[in-house]
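dumping this here so i dont lose it
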C-alpha cells in the first residue's frame, strides 16, 4: 500500500492567534485560509513537507456534532486536555529557546528521554500540547 499522511486536525478557538503562533513563532507556512460553508478553513504546514498540512479548526467543527457536543469540545479545549501534534526538529534546544522567547507556556524543558529522543513541550494559544522531538544524531 502507498499510504501517506496528508492532513491532521488541531482544535483552535481563535484562528488569528493560532496563525501567529504556528507561522510567526514556529515558522510554518499558511497553505489555505478561506471561508468554507460558513466556517474558516485554515491549513498550515512545514516548508520541508509540502504534502502534509495541519488543519486549524474550531473545536466543534464536525457538522454531525450536536450543540452539546460542541460545548463539550469547547470545554475540553479550554481545559487544555485535547491532544496536539508532535513535530521533529534538528535542534530541540534552539527551538525551545525561540518558542520560550515568544512567551509561550512551557510544559517541559528539553529532556533526554529513555526511549532515545530529546524533546520538549509547549501549549499553543488554544491550550493544545505540542511536543518537539530531536532524534539522536
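and the seq i came up w/
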Amino acid at each position: 500500500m502507498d499510504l501517506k499522511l496528508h492532513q491532521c486536525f488541531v482544535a483552535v478557538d481563535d484562528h488569528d492567534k493560532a496563525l501567529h503562533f504556528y507561522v510567526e513563532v514556529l515558522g510554518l507556512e499558511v497553505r489555505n485560509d478561506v471561508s468554507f460553508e460558513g466556517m474558516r478553513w485554515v491549513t498550515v504546514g512545514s516548508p520541508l513537507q509540502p504534502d502534509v498540512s495541519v488543519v486549524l479548526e474550531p473545536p466543534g467543527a464536525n457538522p454531525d456534532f450536536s450543540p452539546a457536543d460542541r460545548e463539550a469540545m469547547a470545554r475540553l479545549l479550554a481545559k487544555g486536555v485535547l491532544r496536539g501534534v508532535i513535530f521533529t526538529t534538528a535542534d530541540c534546544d534552539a527551538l525551545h529557546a525561540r518558542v520560550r522567547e515568544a512567551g509561550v507556556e512551557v510544559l517541559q524543558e528539553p529532556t533526554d528521554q529513555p526511549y532515545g529522543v530529546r524533546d520538549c513541550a509547549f501549549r499553543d494559544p488554544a491550550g493544545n500540547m505540542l511536543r518537539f522531538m530531536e532524534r539522536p544524531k
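The chain has a mean pLDDT of 93.
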